[in-house]
Amino acid sequence: MNDKKLALVTGANKGLGYEIAAGLGARGYRVAVGARDQARGEAAVKTLHAAGVDAFAVPLDVTSDRSVTEAAELVERQGGRLDALVNNAGISGEMGPGWMQDPATLDLDVVREIVETNVYGVIRVTNAMLPFVRRAASPRIVNVSSSVGSVTLQADPDIEVGPIMAAYAPTKSYLNAVTVHYARRFTGTGILVNAACPGLVATDFSGFRGRPPQEAAATPIRLATLPDGGPTGAFFNDDGAIPW
Questions:
Q1: Which of 126, 181, 177 is closest to 150 using CA atoms?
Q2: What is the Cα–Cα distance from 110 to 11, expressed in whole angstroms?
């Protein structure tokens, strides 16, 4: 049995997820690199190894029950305890002109696809990994959300929150609500559950607009490594708590 703390990061073969994995590895965690594409996951692990990070690849498609079950079996074989779960995998869905999703012309198949990954995928992975989370001394669950999921911010005409994204943004609102209910469910157990807003990150997800993923990874990493007695059921960016 490996005595290192173990973290699973979904969507960790590139971009923000990779930097979260690298940051946790630099803090002494053994990192399970969740990736839908096994070859890309193994390539990311090779790069992490070169940087001195203890990591292994976990083939993981968050939209597949079978894939998630097999990932849980692999975590079980790798030690059976999960100290940090970072639900990072997500998609934005097809965008229209001006990088916008117009509610008046939404394709419901696009909406269903985004919800399947951004919400159902988080629930599917979290529940599959809960037996291992419960075995950890101070477990943390972090759901990577976005300020576009804040209904409070979206509804304020004096705040610039970017283009209308009527398919993607509500999935993050849904994820935020789910985060609150997980936190309520585990109140008093030592399992801390929070949502993280990394901001606009320069990855292929955003068309490489935004800030460097190394910088954006700071808040998810901080929430994944909170001390005992830290906050739970809250939504944070680099500056602190932000409104739901």
A1: 177
A2: 20
Please check whether residue 199 is in contact with residue 210, taking contact to mean a CB–CB distance below 8 angstroms. Answer: yes
pLDDT at 160: 86
Instruction: Give 8-39 pLDDT, tens digit per residue.
Output: 999 999 999 999 999 999 999 999 999 999 99
User: The sheet that has 55-59: what strands, in order across it?
Assistant: 55-59, 30-35, 6-9, 84-87, 140-144, 192-196, 235-237, 240-241
Q: Give 97's contacts (C-beta < 8 A, 6+ positions apart).
A: none
Torsion on CA atoms 214, 210, 124, 45, rounded to nearest 10: -30
Pairing mode, if any, of strands 140-144 and 240-241?
Answer: unpaired
Distances (CA, A) of 177 to 8, 146, 164, 173, 180: 22, 13, 20, 6, 5
Among 100, 132, 114, CA closest to 62: 114
Q: pLDDT of 105-144, one tens digit each?
A: 999 999 999 999 999 999 999 999 999 999 999 999 999 9
Using alpha carbons, select from 24, 18, 22 the residue that is nearest to residue 5: 24
Q: Phi first, then psi: what are they for 34, rounded to 5°?
A: -75, 130
* CB distance 60 to 10 below 8 Å: yes
Give this prediction's pTM. 0.95
What is the chain's mean pLDDT, rounded?
95
Coil, strand, or helix at residue 12?
coil
216 sits in which H/E element: helix 213-216
Q: Which active-site residues does the annotation give?
A: 168
